[in-house]
Specification:
- The chain has a single domain, classed as Porin (Beta Barrel).
- The protein has 2 helices and 12 strands, in the order αββββββββββββα.
- It is elongated and about 65 Å long.
Length: about 260
């Protein structure tokens, strides 16, 4: 009886230890997605001055597509770091009902963002299971939940090419119709649906604070804020098998062959 008890305890401990370390075997995720771009500048915009993070300015007519690619590295079950590359295309205009509808300016901007972000999971992907829940009819089950959620913040750089369309220039305004670069601060939230131990479907939306007033190619003398933009994406992530050294298996194998 004592022997059976010790074997059972040992088996449960090994199982928990294996589950606790499972996330280390898939630390890295490759990400691809498509979504939307919304730039908020001196053109268009809701007439209400009290507009938190420009949320009231989000309209279908100013929404354009974006393409998203990234690489995520898991530090622990609650924290990851991520690098991302985003291409976005935007259109802003002084449409009817906006702040300056009589001005009639229109701007088209292409932008490329490269950023690094820290992600904190308030709903982690890894779940703790009771010993009775670690097995089903097919055997041991994984310790991933079906849902994850996180907030993120980071820093990056944005290249942009604005093209401003206007009937005539105005005294006091400043114009820029060539490439520009600015730092940006991404802030946002993301959600994940875990399809399998390899594939994940996600949605992410984030606010970008820039340090430029020329994302639309135009600066009004009455402008009080730098331009901002929002990026959203529906994406798929693939968990890349990772070695004990935290490297992708295929790179680790090459490193071993080169060493020995």
């Amino acid at each position: 009886m004592a022997k059976c008890f010790l074997v059972t305890v040992f088996t449960v401990c090994i199982t928990f230890s294996g589950q606790a370390q499972q996330w280390k075997l898939k630390r890295i995720e490759g990400i691809l997605g498509i979504g939307t771009t919304n730039v908020y500048s001196d053109l268009g915009g809701a007439p209400n001055a009290t507009n938190l993070l420009f949320i009231k300015d989000i309209t279908f007519r100013t929404t354009r597509p974006s393409v998203y690619a990234g690489l995520r590295y898991r530090i622990n079950p609650y924290s990851t770091i991520k690098t991302s590359f985003i291409y976005g295309y935007s259109r802003t205009e002084d449409y009817s009902g906006s702040r300056n509808e009589n001005r009639g300016f229109t701007s088209v901007t292409q932008l490329f963002e490269f950023s690094g972000n820290y992600e904190y999971y308030f709903f982690p992907e890894q779940r703790r299971l009771r010993s009775a829940a670690m097995f089903n009819r097919r055997g041991m089950i994984n310790d991933y939940s079906s849902f994850g959620a996180y907030v993120f913040a980071g820093i990056g750089g944005t290249l942009f090419w604005p093209h401003l369309e206007l009937s005539e220039t105005r005294e006091g305004d400043k114009y820029k119709d060539n490439m520009g670069i600015t730092a940006c601060i991404p802030l946002g939230i993301g959600f994940k649906y875990i399809i399998s131990d390899k594939w994940i479907f996600g949605y992410e939306i984030g606010y970008r604070q820039t340090f430029s007033d020329f994302l639309d190619g135009f600066q009004s003398p009455f402008s009080r804020r730098w331009d901002v933009y929002w990026i959203s994406s529906f994406n798929f992530s693939y968990r890349i098998p990772t070695s004990r050294r935290g490297l992708p298996i295929f790179l680790d194998n090459q490193w071993r062959r080169a060493r020995f």
